[in-house]
Amino acid sequence: MFNLICKPRSVKSIDLSLGVPQRLSAKLPMLDLQIGDYANPRGASELIGEIATRREVSEKQILITKGAIGAIDLIFRSYLKAGDIILLPRPVFPPFTYLAEFLGARVEFYNSQIDLSEIENKLSNPRTKLILLNFPHNPTGRILSRTNAKNIANLMAKNKRVKFISDEVYCDFDYTQKNTSIRAFSEEGFVVRSMSKSFHAAGIRIGYIEAREELLKPIETLAESSVGAISSVDQAIATHLLKNFLFSPDEYKKARNLACEILDNNQIGYIYPYSGIFVCIKTECFQKVDESGIKVVDGKRFHGSEPFIRASFAVPDEIIRQGFSKISQIIKNGAQ
């Protein structure tokens, strides 16, 4: 088993910008590996088997990828062409927009708070080919209710040309236990997950796609031709983590509560994060916060409709206290 400990970090630099869980770390034992041969382009059989067992699907429904963003890239390149429309949630994780526009596809946004009439209208456009559901949502921490997941699946059933991509990277950081994957109601799309968040293993860049075998075939062909095999070492580490790492979101829920308590005590507005590792703080003070030495992400990068900064609470308590208190003071001073 892994020994999980709080990571000591310098308080000289307050970095709340990264999407990497930093409150815990795992000590990895040496692994006995054979690295002289190329790995299977679909992924190591042992790793695929572990994932398929956990997900209760056939091994033929799993494809190992270079992280979650590598999975998204492969799906986009396999199922989007110039002029096609893809629906993305607003605010949106920036790489999704870049990847789609690079292919010449047209991005249309829908509200991540879910307006079913808006989604129905956009799905009905014959040029719409994909809808990406990023829940638990980055950056806001919103979740997808069971009712909304079912209703979106029903709307897709009326527009069979449209496939879903369910980006579930933060699935284990759901503090409500109420987030629902659209996969519970439809098989017409792709589930994307990774080892980066729940397994505290962003460095190994291992993700996977889960989908019906026939939907995976064009992606497998593209992956074999363009990406090749994923590192055998990374896959062996991922397999070991799946067998030995037990994750609980409790440590991050406590961190979320601490960050929100500081903001509440200072009467600072924010979007309440039901999941994930970020707080979207409602402010136009990004430049002042940045100049103060606190690293956060400007909400403009997420194509949000209102100004905010994204701050991570996946850091030690002392960093949370210093960072969120200082941000609160900057915002209050700016309002005077």
From TrEMBL:
Which domain of life does the UniProt lineage start with? Bacteria
Residue ranges constituting the Aminotransferase class I/classII large domain according to the UniProt record: 37-322
For whether the record's keyword set contains Transferase, the answer is yes
Task: Provide the alphabetized UniProt keywords.
Answer: Aminotransferase, Pyridoxal phosphate, Transferase
* UniProt cross-references to InterPro entries, sorted A to Z: Aminotransferase_I/II_large (IPR004839), AspAT/PAT-like (IPR050596), PyrdxlP-dep_Trfase (IPR015424), PyrdxlP-dep_Trfase_major (IPR015421)
What are its cofactors?
A: pyridoxal 5'-phosphate
Q: Which GO terms describe its biological process?
A: amino acid metabolic process
Top enzyme class of this protein? transferase
One GO MF term attached to the UniProt entry: pyridoxal phosphate binding
Give the EC number(s) listed in the UniProt record.
2.6.1.1
Q: Name one Pfam family in it.
A: Aminotran_1_2
Sequence similarity: Belongs to the class-I pyridoxal-phosphate-dependent aminotransferase family.
PANTHER family the UniProt entry points to: ASPARTATE AMINOTRANSFERASE (PTHR46383:SF1)
What's the protein here called?
Putative Aminotransferase class I and II
Organism listed in the record: Microcystis aeruginosa PCC 9701
- According to the entry, what is the taxonomic lineage of the organism? Bacteria, Bacillati, Cyanobacteriota, Cyanophyceae, Oscillatoriophycideae
